[in-house]
Each structure stands twice: as C-alpha cells, then as structure tokens.
Amino acid sequence: MEVNTMTYKAFLPAMIANNHGHLVSIASSAGLIGVNGLADYCASKFGAVGFAESVGLELLATGKDGIKTTIVCPYFINTGMFDGCQTKWPSLLPILNPDYVAKKIIHAVLTDQVYLLLPKSIYLIPTIQYRLFHPQICLYTVWITGHKYYLLTDCTKNRYQHKDNTCIVSIV
C-alpha cells in the first residue's frame, strides 16, 4: 500500500496544478476477490484498488478531469514472485507474460481505460462474486472439492499449514 500512496503523493500535486496526467495503479486480480491462503496479499490489493478508485473519483469531483486513472488487476505474471504456482485452468487463467502485460497497460493508458483486468476472463469475477455466489456457497464448494486454494495449486506451500490441513497466513 505504501508504494501506491507514496507514488501518488509524489506526482499528484504537479498533475493537479496542471490538470494533466495519468495515474496507473498496478494492483492484482486478488484485489477483486478474496483468496484462501492469501488474506494479507488480498487485503493490500483490495486497498490499492480502493485507493486508486477513490483518488480518481475525488479528482473528478474537484473538476480535475484532465487527470486520468488506470487500475490494473492482472492474474499472476511470470516475474518470479509466484514461482511454483500453477492454475487449475491455464487456458482460462494463464500465467501472464510480462511483455504482454506491459503492452496492455500502455494501450489502456493511451485509450484512457479506467480498469484493465488481465486476462479478459477476470472481468467475470465481480459478476460471479457479487451476483451469483454467496461466500458460504464458495466455502461449501471448497469443502466438497477438497481444494483449499481458489483456482490455484501448490501456490502457498511455504505458508504455515495448520494441523487440520488449512492454511493460516495473516494471523501467524
């Protein structure tokens, strides 16, 4: 979170003075939906998304319509941060190539796109989460399938494993 706020604080005053600029916040698809085993990471990304949305709305409300915002929420990017992660459905949720993501971000900035979710299948998350599934249904599905990590396999193996085979992340 500190990186996002520091960057905005550094560049926003000059942008406001000129009513011109473009703020890009790189968050994560984990900022759109909670993921079992990644509570701390999701919380920081939810914060990044909310912060960028709020700043964008504040700029519009104060008449600073020359300052644009783009909020980027990619799935996993092959940067080494998530080495060992595999998706359950690689054709639907592939591990993204950094060059591909960079090109998409540049295009989003040039077209004043407010949200960029990658891959495109991520655009379904808000609809599925808020309209079709109640969190209790998601938990029931986890219990039935035995999958502890939403859409992931072998991704949080270095995190603390509780005796009942659940993963405790944020509170350890």
Automatic annotation (TrEMBL):
One of its GO terms (molecular function) is oxidoreductase activity, acting on the CH-OH group of donors, NAD or NADP as acceptor. GO terms for cellular component: lipid droplet. This is Short chain dehydrogenase/reductase family 16C member 5. Keywords: Oxidoreductase. SUPFAM superfamilies: NAD(P)-binding Rossmann-fold domains. It comes from the Eukaryota. The gene is SDR16C5.
